[in-house]
Write a structure and sequence with these properties.
Blueprint lengths: L24 H10 L14 E2 L11 H7 L10 H13 L4 E5 L2 H12 L5 E4 L4 H9 L3 E4 L20 H11 L7 E4 L12 H13 L4 E4 L3 H11 L8 H10 L3 E5 L10 E5 L2 H14 L10 H14 L2 H20 L12 E5 H4 L9 H13 L1 E2 L1 E3 L1 H4 L15 E5 L7 H16 L6 E6 L10 E5 L42
Parallel strand pairs: 1-10, 3-4, 5-6, 6-7
Antiparallel strand pairs: 2-8, 7-8, 9-12, 11-12, 13-14
Helix pairs in contact: 1-14, 2-11, 3-11, 4-5, 4-10, 8-9, 12-16, 14-16
The protein binds ligand PM9.
The site of ligand PM9 has 16 residues, from helix 4 and helix 5.
Length: 502
């Protein structure tokens, strides 16, 4: 280190601690079996370091905890709602704010309001809950993200970018009348927490505006996206995070938000927009599913904590430390030769399960198997983001087969220390050394919706590689193809979700 360079430290100190539990390997093995090799089905008391998700898992600040005490639990017109509305208007710039209990509730409302059966929704890669609500409302999602996003080795700095030619082709093919909106996420979760550039948001906005297509912005991690723009996009270095967030939002029409991420709360979300008439309809629909439009399924205290969290989230020191911790872990894994998605994103480090476990074909759920193995090794809980998360095509009933078969090590905000990151890196290194002995899985239970949450698996020990056969791949089972989309899948799905006929 140069002599004038000082060490870096988190911009907070710890006021309250929660003890962590450790279990023996045999206890973890029993827990994994009980959980059907799905880390979502473990109890939190069975987990040592919890990197399942950054959603609702942040540590709130002392100011947020103090804000909880200011909860105004009036049924209608709680003052906390007006504080939240003011915070969203200030930071995100949308005029109308409708609270929801979390992000998918906002997605449900906007999909119901804007989509008609047979519509097409283009977007920068699918997100599980977002696409499901679009489909339930009758639309088909079309991915128009740049090709680099599907390549874990591409070092493109803005893998969240939309390919304008792909977007134009979707408009030409289906016509703007069949496209109720463009779904634009900042950052893109499923390809590694990758940002979209400001230049691309401008270009996309200009293109869709020519066709009268509005943009629905998933702003769940927009603050983190803004940080990456500040770091890597020319002309943005001196700007504040709030300014960049505001500019992105100004190019979009509607916003769905899971405040459980950027906004540093354990529960909450909102739907926001500029259009008065659409807002009136949304305020009416929210009372059907969530609650009155001034609380939307939240307690007054939750809205107050969210209002404070939104303002804290755009502090440069906070977001630099948050993304810095993710990059610290990613850097340690790269040093150890672990295949991860590059460049390192903002909310987690994503292991490339295809390169980690080349002996397992996609049908053997390599990312799910790797997630289970990491838990077994150290009690670190990660999440599958591959074929299981992608689910089935609703028309063919076949598995969707994304190019990316990933394990997400998701870092909660302000919760773990650098020492925890070191322990995680050591465990991943250990698992990597033993990778040949990792067996594939068979799915034994498959729920109908968002199967990754509740599916169950069992190991297929015969799929582990005998010693000395590194690099061999298990052949595709007969009748299955290695294609990357539903069309090339077998006609007969292996598991029939309840109530579906093919
Ligand atoms: N994301 C995550 O862990 C939690 C549920 S899926 C395991 O990444 C985006 C980009 C998200 C997101 C949730 C939602 C839904 C919408 N958009 O979980 O309903 O990452 O608040 O938000 C999760 P809610």
């Amino acid at each position: 280190m140069p002599h004038n360079q000082r060490s870096w430290a988190e911009p907070y100190k710890i006021k309250m601690v929660e003890p962590l539990v450790t279990m023996s390997r045999s206890e973890r093995h029993a827990a994994l079996q009980r959980a059907g090799y799905n880390t979502f089905l473990l109890t939190s008391s069975e987990v040592y370091i919890d990197l399942l998700t950054d959603s609702g898992t942040s540590a709130m600040s002392d100011r947020q905890w103090a804000a909880l005490m200011l909860g105004d639990e009036s049924y209608a017109g709680s003052r906390n709602f007006y504080h939240l509305e003011e915070a969203v208007r200030d930071i995100y710039g949308y005029e109308h704010v409708i609270p929801t209990h979390q992000g998918r509730a906002a997605e449900h409302l906007i999909s119901t309001l804007m989509i008609s059966r047979g519509d097409i929704v283009p977007g920068n890669m699918y997100f599980t809950t977002t696409r499901l609500h679009q489909e339930l409302a009758g639309a088909s999602f079309v991915d128009v993200i740049i090709d680099e996003a599907h390549d874990p080795t591409s070092e493109h700095p803005f893998k969240g970018n939309i390919d304008l030619a792909k977007l134009q082709a979707v408009i030409d093919e289906h016509g703007a009348d069949r496209i109720p909106y463009l779904s634009l996420a900042t950052t893109v979760n499923m390809c590694g927490g990758q940002p979209i550039s400001m230049a691309n948001v401008h270009a996309v906005s200009e293109l869709v505006r020519q066709h009268g297509i509005p943009i629905v912005h998933d702003a769940t991690r927009c603050v983190e996206n803004a940080f990456m723009i500040r770091q890597h996009e020319s002309g943005c270095q001196g700007r504040s995070i709030a300014e960049i967030v505001h500019e992105i939002c100004s190019l979009t029409d509607v916003c769905t938000m899971s405040a459980k991420k950027d906004s540093l709360v354990n529960i909450g979300g909102f739907l926001a927009m500029r259009d008065d008439a659409l807002a009136e309809r949304a305020r009416n629909l929210v009372v059907v599913y969530e609650g009155l439009h001034t609380y939307g399924g939240l307690a007054g205290r939750d809205m107050e904590a969210m209002a404070v969290g939104i303002r804290e989230s755009v502090d440069l020191n906070h977001v630099a430390a948050r993304v810095g911790q993710v990059h610290y872990l990613g850097g340690r894994l790269i040093e150890a030769g672990i295949p991860i998605v590059k460049p390192i994103g903002t909310h987690g480090v994503f292991l490339d399960a295809r390169r980690f476990l080349p002996h397992l074909s996609t049908e053997l759920f390599p990312a799910q198997a790797l997630t289970a193995e990491i838990y077994l090794d150290s009690g670190v809980r990660a999440m599958e983001r591959g074929i299981v998360s992608a689910g089935r095509d609703p028309l063919s009933g076949c598995h969707r087969r994304p190019e990316l078969e990933l394990v997400r090590l998701t870092i909660p905000r302000r919760v773990y220390t650098q020492a925890h990151m070191d322990v995680v890196a050591e465990s991943i290194r250990e698992v990597h050394q033993q990778r040949d002995s990792i067996a594939g899985l068979e799915m034994t239970f498959e729920p109908k919706f968002l199967r990754f949450f509740q599916a169950r698996f069992r190991p297929l020990p015969e799929t582990a590689m005998p010693a000395g056969e590194s690099g061999r791949t298990v052949p595709e089972p007969p009748g299955r193809s290695a294609g990357s989309n539903g069309e090339s899948m077998p006609a007969e799905p292996r598991y029939q979700p309840e109530g579906r006929s093919t």
